[in-house]
Amino acid sequence: MSTLEILHFPDPRLRQIAEEITVFDEELVSLAHKMLDTMYISKGIGLAAIQVNIKKRLVVIDVSEKRDKPLFLINPIIYEKNNKIESEEGCLSVPGFYDKVERYNNIKYKSSDFDGNIKAYQAEGLLAVCIQHEIDHLNGKLFVDYLSDLKRDRIAKKIQKLSVQGKLPTRKDVPYSI
Ligand code: QAP
Ligand code: CO
Questions:
Q1: In this structure, how many other beta carbons lie within 10 angstroms of the beta carbon of residue 60?
Q2: Please, what is the average pLDDT of the chain?
Q3: What ligand has the least distance to the C-alpha of 138?
Q4: Per-residue exposure over 22-38, b if at least 16 CB sit within 10 Å of its own CB, e if not
Q5: Which of 1-5, 44-48, 90-94 has the lowest mean pLDDT?
Q6: Which ligand is nearest to the CA of 93?
Q7: Residue 89 a catalytic site member
Q8: Of all atoms in ligand 1, which is nearest to the CA of residue 97?
Q9: What is the DSSP letter of 19?
Q10: Quick one: 54 exposed, middle or buried, by C-beta within 10 A (0-12, 13-18, 19+)?
């Protein structure tokens, strides 16, 4: 199995804007599966390409309990959002830190398949929240941006310190439960 290295906040590369995907080939499918393997191994529910330093509008998600229902989002866009909620979020790029973020419980979105065909979908609950979180990544935005400057700076400093010490939490330490 081939996995990719995940960038950690406050790495400036997480601030890049991902580019529209225009080439639908085997390489794209291969990248998507490498991202999926990386996400499963890290016990995540969502991963955007920018988190593995690839500037493409590609996202992998699996919010299923058995972790057997992968979703691939290519050039996703949200065109309707309803019912604000507060969600407790984490991020593979902000390991060990969680906080409340305002999101929408119901969304309608469009996404391309691996042949370049755009289709419309609806999502709710955790999946809807995850899609909002991942699309933020494609626009260089992180969930910590919704927190106060003070909280964000503290998280950045703690992650940098843990990283230098080689003590950043991995999913082996903190099992992720939805
Ligand atoms: C985004 O997040 C998300 O702290 C996906 O040490 C999160 O997969 C959407 C993770 C919550 C909706 C609700 C976090 C792994 C995974 C950690 C993730 C960690 C290891 C986070
Ligand atoms: Co994230």
A1: 25
A2: 95
A3: 2
A4: eeeeeebeebbebbbeb
A5: 1-5
A6: 2
A7: no
A8: 4
A9: B
A10: middle
Helix (H) or strand (E) holding 99: strand 99-112
Gap from CA of 132 to ligand 1 centroid (Å): 13
- 85 three-state secondary structure: strand
> What pLDDT shows up at residue 178?
35
Ligand 1 binding pocket, CB closer than 6 Å: 42-46, 87, 89-92, 95-96, 129-130, 133, 169, 171, 174, 176
101 forms beta bridges with: 87
Name residue 124's beta-bridge partners.
106
- Distance (angstroms) between ligand 2 centre and the Cα of 133 equals 6
The order of strands in the sheet holding 58-61 is 46-48, 58-61, 71-89, 99-112, 118-124
Q: The pTM is what?
A: 0.95
Burial 147-162 (b: 16+ CB within 10 A, else e): beeeebeebbeebeee
The Å distance, Cα 48 to ligand 1 centre, comes to 12
Percent helix, strand and coil across the chain, each to the nearest 5 = 35, 30, 40
Ligand with minimal distance to 51 CA: 2
Atom of ligand 1 at shortest range from CA of 89: 11
Under a CB-based contact definition with an 8 Å cutoff, are residues 84 and 92 in contact? Answer: no
- What residues have a C-beta under 5 A from ligand 2, the ion? 91
